[in-house]
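Today's session is about reading a structure prediction critically. Students often jump straight to the picture, but the first step is always the sequence itself: look for stretches that repeat, for charged clusters, for runs of hydrophobic residues. Only then move on to the predicted structure, which in these notes is written as discrete structure tokens rather than atom positions. Here is the chain we will use throughout the hour.
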Amino acid sequence: MPRLGIVTVGQSPRADIVAQFAALAPAGTDVVLRGCLDGASRDEVAAMAPAGDEDVLYTKLGDGSDTTIAKRHAIARAPGAIGALRADGADAILFACTGAFPDGLGGPGVVFPSRLLAGLAQALLPAGRLGLLVPLPAQVAQLPRKWARPGLDVIAVPLIPSADKAATDAAARQMASHRPDLVVMDCMSYTQVHKEAVRAATGAPTLLAVSTMARIAAELMQ
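Below is the predicted structure for this chain, in token form.
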């Protein structure tokens, strides 16, 4: 039985992420998820909160609650989660976060969504206006820098993935006001519901990170 390993920045379980990958993986694939924050207490997680202008990551804890941590803590703890998946016998490992991470993190064969999404966006939109849906207001200034390249105008709109329909629709309308040529949903916690709202409001092609990466992972497993 093929085994797909998934690392989340937060804690396991993440039934939402596992379900989306399992639905698109080859039949019989065993999907195993580990979290960078697995085993960390609430006090320990709270101590990882970003300070100043540190890069911030949004994620979820094992009880489903939202949290934010400084990216440096995810980088420091990622090798442990990746190593656990290697010990589990994972045939492919995907790091389920769209943030930019150092080359070589976790060793060979680990798939990082940010690199693949950036390549897709460049292929689909060599020049024009790229819209980013990002979880946190603090990321509106941070994340466009990750996507910047000549000929590309990058704008970001915040929407926490746990937001209700009214907030989702409002963010979609805000995105539409910028008239993007392509939208990337820059977080693995966004769902098809979020994508449909953005696509309906903007009329622009929209890449949902989790389903895009699930399809790529399926190709790696076959």
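Discussion point for the tutorial: The chain has two domains: 3-112+211-221, 115-209.
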